[in-house]
Amino acid sequence: MNQAVLGLSIAYVALGVLLLGLTINTRWPVWVKVVTILLVSSLYFVTYLSLTGMQGWPTTEDPPERFLLLASSIQEPDKTTGEKGVIYFWATSLAGNKPASEPRAYQLEFSSELQDRFVEADKRMLDGVMQVGKSEWITGAENPNNIGRFAEKKELIRLYDLPDPEMPEK
To answer: For labeling, which of 5, 28, 81, 118 is most exposed (least CB within 10 Å)?
Structure first.
């Protein structure tokens, strides 16, 4: 448990104790007291479930337009249990041709096309070649394999070798 979750938990417990003390000594109707205590108590769970980004779980947000791939992990779909496959990857955003200060974990729906791209990128990284990714959206009209689904948008991730840096001339 990280310090943010612990700190917020302590703050909510203190708020709950304060509210309980105030509601015992007031002349509010009993239903108002019960509703306020239940409302504050439910906020414990809402806050905990809302803080998954702070707990280190991968985000389902769109990856940055350009990123430096650091690692990936692929979980293939399991037909016996019915679990959908997931592709996790860790990347650092490339804004202005400079990497961001901190990497981020991303989660994508499994597809065999994406799996092939990430497996190939992992092999290249094991050979010492850094990989750059580009994230773009294509519509059904731009995808020749997607006949009849013109309104559907799909995210396309392309991975390629990081170009060698250009050295200044002497």
So the answer is: 81
Give the residue numbers spanning the domain of 17. Answer: 3-50
Contact between 110 and 87 (Cβ < 8 Å): yes
The reply to whether 88 and 34 lie within a common domain is: no
Q: pLDDT tens digits, residue range 64-107?
A: 888 999 999 999 998 888 889 999 999 998 877 677 778 888 99
Give 26-30's long-range contacts (Cβ < 8 A, gap of 24+). none
Buried b (16+ CB within 10 A) or exposed e, 50-88: eeeeeeeebeeeebbeebbbbebebeeeeeeeeeebbbe
pTM of this structure = 0.63
